[in-house]
């Protein structure tokens, strides 16, 4: 079900009745902890802990941000076979799961910059019992996070944070792809690539490696996640339906707003930083890159493969899977299924 403002108004009349069920739900949560809940124990403080994201998730977000910046900065002014080889390994150096985890974490940091959303989540989780209930609902359904006030604004920020970087990577890839034609007047670009199987193996190895750490970026992301210094991102509220990638980012942001996204929950939180649709899209981009490189012979063909499949296609995957418009050249895969927003559950515990 898509949650609308009218739905909110209608639901408010039913909150009293729903509240009568909350005590039973809370007792059930205590006696039967859910395997998919990120709460390892009952929150002890009366008020939520400080808003913030696990330092390890911030490191994931920083590594993602740094990779996108490096890849987008790839120059199309190639001057030698060595410059092509180095650029190819640089832009191919991401493991799909790590890139998605970093994207969701980065989107969550951006979503936390919406004060209305953070305040509403924290108000709803003002007691340990309510936080237990909310964490259970959030863990079982990312759409639950989209019911809070300001969620549309938080979703817009997450969408913009991930999608803008994807658009920039796509544009850089298009420039690189076009350079495959312009550099053909240079003799070196027409020479066959030596040890083509070895070159392909090296690129495949880079594609299975973890993202390079970017510890210098973590402090700024930590300040943004805590509300001390927002990211330089602005966006209008995003309207439903929301894609799974955006919903996951807002889901993680809601847990961070409750003060329940610390390092002690990192392993459980990472089970939420996944999106099958984006994974499939990026996996296909990688396969297409490897197939392209397998048949490429002169250096300029490697440039084409790099620009199209690892830059344009990767950027397109990010853009499409946050629900933004994709360039017409590559609208070949369907939009991901929308995340439905569940009926609102009471936060009252008695």
Count the DSSP helices: 15
Overall tally of domains: 1
Radius of gyration: 22 Å
Q: Which class do the helix and strand fractions yield?
A: mainly alpha
Residue windows where pLDDT falls under 50 for at least 5 positions: 1-44, 330-336
Task: State which percent range the strand residues make up.
Answer: under 5%
Percent in helix? 55-70%
Q: Roughly how many Å apart are the termini?
A: 27 Å
Mean pLDDT: 86
Q: How would you sum up the major sheet?
A: none
Q: In one word, what is the shape?
A: elongated
Number of distinct beta strands: 0
Q: Note the run of SSEs as H and E.
A: HHHHHHHHHHHHHHH
What does this entry look like structurally?
The structure is a single chain. Helix 4 (81-91) runs parallel beside helix 10 (196-206), helix 5 crosses helix 8 and helix 8 (151-182) packs across helix 12 (244-257). Mean pLDDT is 86; it is low at 1-44 and 330-336. The protein has helices at 5-12, 15-31, 55-72, 81-91, 96-111, 115-124, 128-140, 151-182, 187-190, 196-206, 218-226, 244-257, 266-270, 276-295, 299-320. The longest helix is centred in the middle third of the chain and has 32 residues, at 151-182. The protein has one domain (5-330). With 350 residues, it is mostly helical. It is built from 15 helices and no strands.
Give a topology summary.
Blueprint: H1 5-12, H2 15-31, H3 55-72, H4 81-91, H5 96-111, H6 115-124, H7 128-140, H8 151-182, H9 187-190, H10 196-206, H11 218-226, H12 244-257, H13 266-270, H14 276-295, H15 299-320
């Amino acid at each position: 079900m898509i949650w609308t403002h009218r739905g909110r108004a209608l639901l408010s009349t039913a909150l009293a009745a729903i509240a009568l069920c909350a005590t039973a739900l809370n007792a059930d949560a205590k006696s039967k902890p859910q395997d998919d809940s990120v709460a390892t124990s009952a929150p002890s403080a009366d008020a939520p802990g400080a808003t913030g994201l696990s330092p390890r998730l911030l490191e994931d977000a920083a590594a993602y941000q740094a990779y996108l910046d490096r890849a987008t900065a790839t120059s199309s002014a190639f001057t030698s076979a060595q410059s092509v080889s180095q650029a190819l390994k640089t832009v191919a150096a991401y493991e799909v799961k790590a890139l998605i985890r970093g994207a969701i974490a980065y989107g969550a940091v951006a979503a936390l910059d919406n004060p209305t959303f953070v305040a509403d989540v924290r108000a709803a989780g003002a007691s340990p019992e309510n936080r237990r209930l909310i964490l259970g609902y959030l863990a079982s359904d990312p759409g639950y996070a989209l019911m809070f006030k300001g969620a549309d604004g938080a979703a817009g920020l997450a969408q913009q944070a991930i999608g803008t970087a994807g658009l920039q990577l796509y544009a850089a890839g298009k420039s690189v792809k076009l350079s495959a034609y312009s550099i053909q007047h240079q003799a070196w670009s027409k020479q066959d690539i030596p040890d083509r199987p070895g070159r392909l193996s090296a690129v495949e190895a880079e594609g299975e490696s973890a993202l390079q750490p970017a510890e210098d970026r973590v402090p700024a992301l930590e300040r943004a996640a805590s509300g001390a210094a927002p990211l330089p991102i602005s966006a209008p509220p995003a309207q439903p339906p929301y894609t799974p990638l955006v919903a996951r980012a807002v889901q993680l942001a809601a847990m961070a707003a409750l003060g329940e996204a610390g390092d002690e929950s990192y392993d459980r939180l990472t089970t939420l930083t996944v999106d099958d649709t984006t994974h499939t899209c990026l996996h296909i981009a990688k396969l297409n890159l490897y197939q392209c490189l397998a048949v490429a012979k002169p250096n300029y063909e490697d440039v084409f493969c790099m620009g199209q499949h690892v830059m344009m296609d990767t950027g397109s995957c990010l853009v499409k899977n946050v629900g933004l418009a994709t360039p017409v050249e590559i609208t070949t895969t369907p939009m991901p299924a929308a995340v439905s927003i569940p009926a609102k559950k009471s936060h009252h515990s008695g």
